[in-house]
Structures are given as C-alpha cells and as structure tokens.
Amino acid sequence: MKGVIAGLNKLFENRVRLGIMSVLAVNDYYDFNNLKETLDVTDGNLASHLKALEENDLIKVNKQFIGRKPNTRYSITETGKQLFGIHLKALEKIINSQ
Amino acid sequence: MKSRSKSCEDLNTIRKIMEESSRFLSLSGLSGLFAGLIALIGGAVACFAILKGNIMLSSEYFTGMNAEEVSIMRFWLIIDSMAVLILAIGVSIFFSYRKSISQGLKIWTPVSKRMLINVLVPLVTGGIFIVILYNENLLQLIIPSMLVFYGLALVNAGKFTNNDVFILGLIEILIGLVSALFTDFGLIFWCLGFGILHIIYGLIMYRKYEK
Fold it and tell me: What ipTM was estimated for this complex?
C-alpha cells in the first residue's frame, strides 16, 4: 500500500478526493456532472482528482452514451472500498485516542 | 500524525457528503400536513355533497338507487379523488421545492430520480390495478388497494429519504389491510389513512426537522 501511515492514506488527504470517495462509498455509481454539483468544484479540479484515484485503482470509470451525449460514470472498486474503510477507521482512532 | 480536530472535521464532511449524496432530505413536513388537510376536505365533499351525508359505503345504500343515480355518483367520486390526488401531489412538490431552495440543495438529483422510480412502480401498478377493479365492479376493494399500494410506495421511498417515511408506509399498509376486512367503512379508513395520518406525520416531521 502506498502512503499509509497508521492506516491514514495520503491519497485521501485532499478534500476533493475525500468527497469523491464519500459519494462513491454510498452510491453504486455517480456521473461527472452530479459529482461536480455535489462537491461544488470546477471541471478541471474534479477531473485531475478523479484521474489520480483512477490511476491508483480506487475508482473505476465507465464511459457511455445517453442518446448522443457522452456520460461518464464513476464507481468505487473493491480496493477503494477497503482502503477508504481503513482510512475511516484510522480517523476514528485518532479522535478516540487523544 | 493528524490532529484530532482535523480528523473530526474530515469525518463530519464525509458524513455530510454521504448523506446528501444518497438521501433526499427536502421532503417537507408541511407537504404531509397540507396533503392531509386536502384529503380530509375531499373526504368531506364525498361524504356530504356526493353521498348526501352517508358515510357508510354499504351495498344496501346503493341498491336503493337506480343505475343512472349510481353512475352519476361514481363519476363525482372519481372527480373528487382525482382532485385530491392532483392537489396533494402539487402541494408536496411545492413545499419540497421551497425547502430544497432554503437548504441550498438541488431537488433533481440522482437520489431523487431513483426515489421517484421506486415510488412510481408500486403507485402506477396500484393505479392500473384499481382501474381493473373498477371495470370488474369490485368497488369495495378500491379504497383498500389505494391504501396498500400507497403504503408500498412509501416503504420504497423510505430507502432514499428519512426513515419516518418507511414507518408511515407500514402504517398505511396496515390500515389498507384492515379496511379490506371492513369495506363498509371504506370512506372512514380513507380519511384516516390519507387525511389524519398525513397530518400527524406532517406535524411530527415539522417539529423534528424544521423547527
């Protein structure tokens, strides 16, 4: 595992990435525009964070067409689910331990 | 090591985003309250204006009338119940829309879309079923069906909004099943399920989440 200190994952330190993971943890899938609205971020910002998460195999991308409009859907991977779960536990531990 | 306050803040953000992205929380208690009042008015119109003060829907009452009188009565009962349905849906949308704006939330989200589909399946099934009952002249089962299918729709909706809707759905199903055993009292059960129960639910919701 990369960048894990006591269960905390460096990848989730960024607010936008944390937000993306939170949305995808409780929804089967979410598309780009809805993620943008939910997290209130710009296109470029969201795209770069999605790419980082995708490259680390935490989320997967599913491109399709709805009518003639392209639609990009994101969902969480098994790895993503596990690492996010570990990250949440680590956060809880920090809160409880101090 | 991360500080405690930062971790706490992170967890709160995560919780908030999870809730907002997976639950539709703009249903307003006022919707329930006004939908209930509209249903009671509709029930009163049916009882006093259409059935001429007769609250019992017993078969003896109808056998005393000629075919034309019965069909006129049926026609007005359908108009009355349609008016209640349209007005109740209207106020629900209005108050939810208002609440979502005051919360700064969108009303048309992936969650609300999924919720709508899950509500529409039992509701449309119920609607078709009721048309079949009407055509087959099984009128005494129409009110129980309305309550049961509406309850099933709410049980489905409960997965996407607060849990109180799920409980309201269970009670509606229960009232619907009981009303199927006492069909003479259909109108009373109808007013109980669609009127009084909605008003109670609306008041509880309003005090719980909006005060």
Answer: 0.80
